[in-house]
Design goal:
The chain is of the alpha+beta class. The chain contains seven helices and eleven strands. Helices cover about 50% and strands about 25% of the residues. It is rod-shaped.
Length: about 290
């Protein structure tokens, strides 16, 4: 009976030793996944050396490996601030960031795994308020890209000392008070009306210029026609004058004669010619017959 108990006791002891060996063997090996670094903590003390991706050995039960994520992460946050012209500004931003592998141990030791809530988000709020206060509400809209770049640069400078690197900073939206939005809408309507009035004015000017040009063209065409007609008539008259001579003129007079002689009074001879009888009569007084 005692032999059986001894065998049972020995079997349990061997099983326990094997189990402890398996546990120790398993505890002596750690695997750091891709995109992470392993921070070595030995009996509560953080080592400056970090483990890279892959399988590593560690001291069982004495060392703990804390995994720090070095992949690009994303956080979104809403922020409220005041513009340069004292307009309330509500904005939403999205940030892509990651932690530097070489700073993983320092971040874990000084901040912990909640570095996003502890350092990043307060720095975002501070950067948003500081930069939006340098622009008017209208400039925040018209210069949105430049504002985003400036906030991103300010944020990167603030968190870089903690080992946090900013990859991308995006402004999702800017929102203002209802009064300001109404004022912006009215301004846009006024600008559209002004643009439409200027366009209509320019159109009228263009039409007037076109009409004036057409009148000038028509006047020039009419003047050219008159000049050409006058030149043609002058040329014709010159040709006619050149073709006329004394015989032709006499012939034209004969062609136009109606066959009757005109009554002619000659002041020199005082003779009246009667065209019907063809006889000449003296207009001098008759002398006495006796003379």
């Amino acid at each position: 009976m005692s032999m059986k108990n001894n065998k049972l006791r020995n079997g349990i002891l061997i099983g326990a030793v094997v189990l402890l060996a398996l546990i120790a063997g398993t505890s002596a090996v750690t695997i750091v996944p891709a995109g992470h670094t392993g921070v070595i903590v030995t009996m509560g003390k953080v080592s400056d050396r970090v483990l890279s991706e892959g399988m590593h050995l560690k001291v069982p039960f004495a060392q703990q490996i804390v995994m720090m994520n070095n992949k690009i992460q994303k956080t979104e946050i809403d922020s409220n601030g005041v513009s340069k012209d004292l307009q309330t500004v509500s904005s939403g931003v999205a940030i892509n960031y990651h932690i530097n592998k070489d700073d993983s141990a320092k971040i874990y030791q000084s901040i912990g795994e909640g570095y996003a809530d502890t350092v990043l988000q307060p720095a975002i709020q501070e950067s948003m308020k500081a930069i939006t206060a340098q622009y008017t509400a209208e400039e925040l809209i018209t210069k949105r890209s430049a504002v985003g770049e400036e906030i991103g640069a300010t944020l990167a400078e603030k968190v870089q000392e903690y080992g946090i690197l900013i990859d991308k900073f995006n402004i999702i939206n800017f929102d203002f008070s209802e009064e300001f939005n109404a004022a912006i809408e009215q301004k846009q309507v006024a600008e559209q009306n002004k643009l439409r009035a200027e366009t209509e004015k320019e159109q009228k000017v263009i039409e007037a210029q076109a009409d004036a040009e057409q009148k000038v063209i028509a006047a020039k065409a009419e003047a050219d026609a008159i000049r050409q007609k006058a030149e043609a008539e002058a040329e014709a008259n010159e040709k006619i004058n050149a073709s006329l001579n004394e015989n032709v003129l006499k012939y034209q007079q004969i062609e136009k004669w109606n066959g009757e002689y005109p009554n002619v009074v000659s002041s020199d001879s005082s003779i009246l010619v009667d065209a019907s009888s063809g006889r000449a009569a003296s207009t001098q007084p008759a002398e006495n017959a006796g003379e």
